[in-house]
Amino acid sequence: MAGDELPAGRRVAQWRVRRGMTQQMLADRLGRSKSWVDKVERGVRALDRVSTFRDIAVVLRIDASVLLGRDVQPAEVTERVEGVERIRAALSTYDIALGTPAARSVVLPADRLARDVAHAWVTFQHARYPQVVAVVPGLLATAQRAHADAPDSGRAALVEAYRVTASLLVKLGEGELGWLAADRAVAASAGDPVLVAAACVQLGQALRASGRARAARSVSLAAAYRIAPPDPDDGVPAELSLCGALLVQAALAAARDGDHRATADLLDEAGDLAARVGDGHDRHATAFGPTAVDVARAAAAVELGAARDAVAWHEKAVRRNAWRWLPPEHRAAHLLDAARAYLRTGDPRGAGRVLLDAERTAPAELRHRPAARQVIAQVTRAPHAPATLVQLALSLGVT
Asked: CA–CA separation, 99 vs 96, rounded Å?
């Protein structure tokens, strides 16, 4: 077995020997029994608390991350910061408007650009955030050139490029920058009600993420009712999905603002549309349907401080057959909300369980999303946290 693949217990044994210590000596310095040390080193007993890793590391005079065979500085943090700066630079470029030489690069054919944008969305929905970070700067430049060359045919691709950028930035904890990308999506979509509605989904997310819940609610409702058909029974599924997704955004904003009644009314209205649309679709990258509304009810309950209701909605959502049809990003994001709910009901084991589900579903959701680090830190402070989660926390530098 390669050194980096050794279990933590085996590393404890290796470093104990390097320090010239017997199991009894290590046990004495830790205030533990020799039997406990022996079981840890043989892998019979899991190291299930961050504090235990730290105590052992102090006695062995090493960094706690060394016990996991990981680098001390989590690479994910550095990669995320550098990636966001590249996206910021791309959003700060005005080559097209200024007519600089860079703006006269080769314009991709419309079908190729559409495929590239669609691929970026699929990659995002599979929570492969580093890959999306890598392609977004070039995608934005390409889409801007195509729109400048052919404003009508290039508009949809530009709006979608800004939308996926906004979604990514919100996910990475960059609400203000996400707001800029979403605002540009709305500006580019002007005159096309469907594109405006699609762009406003991300605008609502970004406004809420940047602390502007009332503005998020207002813009989401305005866009929803603009695209809503006079009779929902006659509505086109794609437009009903956008309308429903916007109502969900408005409901989550109302929940952030503490408005219980509006939250319930808006989610009920979204639920009616979801029943008409059904599950298993992803129109305009919304994944809207009955299961998505149940997931939103759980998120809203967390915002409103109704943790037990949130757990109940979570457990209902994951029992649905359509749960597995939601994109991995959507499922993992929900599992983070569920972890918060379990914590608030005094169930850290339940929180740890759903976090590990999120890790299996979409590892990058925990490794690259700042909000996830806070939840992981809370769970790993609880007694008897899952050993796997403790190791993940240490590898991420979460304390």
From this structure: 5
* Number of domains the chain contains: 2
236 phi and psi, to 5 degrees?
-80, 130
Any idea what the Cα angle at residue 21 is, between residues 17 and 25, rounded to 5°? 145
Domain end among 40, 68, 96: 68
Q: How far apart are CA 296 and CA 314, in angstroms?
A: 9
The token pair that represents 25 in the structure block = 């000596």
Q: How many helices (H) and strands (E) does the chain have?
A: 21, 0
Task: Give the span between the Cα atoms of 262 and 271, in whole angstroms.
Answer: 14
| Nearest alpha carbon to residue 204 among 185, 188, 191 | 185
Q: Give ∠ CA 365-250-114 in degrees, rounded to 5.
A: 60
Q: What is the dihedral of CA 237, 243, 247, 250, to 10 degrees?
A: 150
Closest to 289 in 3D by CA, of 265, 309, 272, 311: 272
**Which residue among 68, 100, 124 closes a domain?**
68
CB 147 within 8 A of CB 187: no
**Residue 351 to residue 340: CA distance in whole angstroms:** 7
| Tally of CB atoms within 10 A around 301 | 23
Instruction: Please tell me the distance from the alpha carbon of residue 121 to that of residue 297, in angstroms, as a whole number.
Output: 25
Alpha-carbon Rg for the chain in angstroms: 24
**Which residue range forms the structural domain that includes residue 33?**
3-68
| pLDDT tens for each residue of the chain, 399 residues long | 444 456 788 888 988 888 788 999 899 888 899 999 999 988 888 776 767 877 888 788 776 667 766 544 455 666 777 888 999 999 998 877 666 766 667 778 889 999 999 999 999 999 999 999 999 999 999 999 999 888 888 999 999 999 999 999 999 989 999 999 999 999 999 999 999 999 999 999 999 999 999 999 999 999 999 999 988 888 899 999 999 999 999 999 999 999 999 999 999 999 999 999 999 999 999 999 999 999 999 999 999 999 999 999 999 999 999 999 999 999 999 999 999 999 999 999 999 999 999 999 999 999 888 888 889 988 888 877 777 788 788 777 776
- 365 occurs within a structural domain: yes
